[in-house]
Amino acid sequence: MIRYTPLLMLALLAACDEAAMAELNASLSGTPVASAPEVPQLPAAVLAALPPGVPPAVVFQDSSGCYAVGIEVTVPQQGYPLRDAAGQPICEGQPALVALAPPAATAQ
Do 56 and 81 have their domain in common? Predict the structure, then answer.
């Protein structure tokens, strides 16, 4: 029993951290630990267009390269497009919109 005391203490200390307990269980049983899915890096324009409370993990790119918010788990993914402040869809490789100055009046 005394041989298992350090192991029991470790389990009690790690009980507060769910990830640590999963790692401990995996090391004792020999099964690999499943890691959490990675959230892709999103452009700043996409993050700014997200409605409040919507996590970035539900954002995906549709077949045309535009960003959308997934509404359910389907194949292919479905959702509504993210739009910028001007109401335009936010797409990958979209050139930055630049306001052009009006043409200069020529002197006659």
Answer: yes
What is the Cα–Cα distance from 103 to 72, expressed in whole angstroms?
48
- Regarding pTM above 0.85, the answer is no
CB atoms inside a 10 Å sphere around CB 68: 20
Residue span of the structural domain in which 63 resides: 37-94
Q: Does residue 106 belong to any structural domain of this protein?
A: no
C-alpha to C-alpha distance for 73 and 49, rounded to whole angstroms: 21
Examine residue 89 and say whether the peptide bond preceding it is cis (omega within 30 degrees of 0). no
pLDDT in tens, the chain (108 residues): 667 676 666 555 555 566 666 776 777 777 665 565 566 689 999 999 999 999 998 999 988 889 999 988 778 888 899 999 899 999 987 654 444 455 555 655
Residue 56 DSSP label: G
Contact 67, 42 (CB under 8 A): yes
